[in-house]
Amino acid sequence: MKRGLDVIVVGAGNAALCTALSAREQGASVLVLEAAPRNQLGGNSYFTDGAVRVAFRHLADLEQLVPALTSELAGRVDAAPYTAEQYENDLVRVSDGKTDRRLARLLANRSYPTIRWLSEQGVRFELILDNQAFEIAGKHRFWGGLMLRTAGRGTGLIGALLSRVESLGIEVWDTAPAVGLEMFDGKVTGVHVGPPRGPVTVGARCVVLACGGFEANPDQRERHLGSGWRGAIVRGSPFNQGAGLRMAFAVGAQPCGDWRGCHAVATDVNAPPVGDFTKPGDVFKKHSYPFGIIVNRDGHRFVDEGADFRNYTYARYGREILRQPGGVAFQVFDGQVRHLLRSEYFHEECTRFEADMIENLAAQIEIDRTAFLETVTTYNTAVQDGPFDPHVRDGKQTRGIDPQKSNWALRLERPPFVAFPVKCGITFTYGGLRIDTSARVLDRTDMPIPGLYAAGELVGGLFYENYPGGSGLMSGAVFGRIAGTHAGREALQRS
Questions:
Q1: Which of 154, 209, 258, 291 has the most CB atoms around its CB within 10 Å?
Q2: Which regions in the chain score pLDDT beneath 70?
Q3: Per-residue pLDDT tens digits for 384-397
Q4: 3-state secondary structure string, 447-470?
Q5: Distance (Å, rounded) from C-alpha 426 to C-alpha 361?
Q6: How many of the other CB atoms lie within 10 Å of CB of 40?
C-alpha cells in the first residue's frame, strides 16, 4: 500500500478534473489516476464541441462569462431566457418522464453557478454563433436552449482544466489504469492500480469514479445495448471500457438508469473506428439533417427528420441508423439549404456526393435507385406550403406519408443535390451507478458506500433513450464539482 491521500479521482476528463479541483478547494490532497497515456488525456470530453447547456435569466448573465459578448454584439443577439425550470422540463420531456427528478433539478439549478465556477478555474466561453444561431435581419437568433461552448471546444476545455490542476500541484498519473477498489471495515480506502504503473495499491480516504461508461468495450456494448452494437463507431476515447462500473459493482454498488440506451449520433461513414486524438474536436459528426431527408440503402426514409430541434433528436437517431440495412444511411439536401449546413459538412474529412440532378445523385450512391427516386417524389408531393423558419419549430410539414416530417419540410428541387453517407457513432452509455444528491454511490439498499463517489458518464438515472444537447458536459461539471466538494470534506473529517 502506497501513501495515504485524502481523495483519489479515477479518470481525467471534464468530470474528473472538475472533481479534483473541487476537492482541492476543500483543502484535500488529491491524486488523479488515468488509464490513457499523457498525449491522450481528456476522455470523451476531448472530442466534444464544447457545448454546455446552462440556465440563465437574462443575456447579461452570459455577458459576465463571455468576454467577446460586448454591448454591441449583445444588441444583435436574439435569445429568450432559458430558465432552470425549462432545463428540467427538457430533461423530463426527452426522457419520456424517466429521468431522476432529483438529479435533473440539481443539474438545472447548479448549471449557472457551475459555469461561473469553471470561469474562475480559467475555462473560457464563447457564443455558439455558427451552429446554434441563424443570422436573420442582422440578428443572431438562437434556438433550442443552447448558447455557450468552451473556447477551443473540447480540447480547450481539457487544456484549461489540466492547466489549473497542475497549477494547484495536483498530481496526474497517466498510464495508471484503476483495476479495483481497496476496502476495509466496509469503507473504500484506496485504489488498485494495474500496469504499467502497477501493480500497486494507493490508499485514500475517499475515491471518486469519473472514468466514463462502457461505450468503447464491444463485448459490453453487445451485452447491454444489443446485437449490432459491436460494430458501432466509437466517437471518443478507447479507454472507456467500463472499469469504473465493474469496480463499483464489485463492492456492492447499485446499478441505475437506462442500460440499453446510449448517446449515439450520425457520423461520417469513413470516420475512424475510435476517436482520433490527432484531430481536435469531432469533425465527423453530421447534425444538419432537420433541413433535408435521411434515407437508407433501400431508398426509404425511416425517421421524422424535423420532429424537434436537432438538440433534442440527434443523440437517438444514431440508433435508428444502426438498425438500417448495412447500418448505413444517407443525409440528402438540395441547394436551398446549403447555407444552413453546419461546418462539419465542409471539412476535408467529409464524405460527400454531389450532382446537378437528383437522378445523377442516385447513380453515385449505394442505394436502391428506383425506390429512392420514388421516395423523393412522394416526399416532395407531401410537403405543405408555408413559411420556412429554421430558428423555430415552424410547423412546415408533410402530410400523407409515414414517417411524416413535422418541421422544416422543404421540397428537394433546387440543385446542387448532395448526399452524405453516415453510420452510427456511439458517444457514451446511459446506464450507470445510483448516486444521491451529494454524488455518493449507493448500495443495493440505497445506503451510501462510505468513501465512494461518482461523477460524469457513469452516473445513472439522468438520461433515458435521449438527451438534450450540451447537458453531458454540464452534468459532468456539476456532479464533478459536487463529488469533489463532498469527498474532500468527508476525507478531511475522517482524517
A1: 209
A2: 1-3
A3: 999 999 999 999 99
A4: CEEEEEEECHHHECCCCCCCCCCC
A5: 28
A6: 18
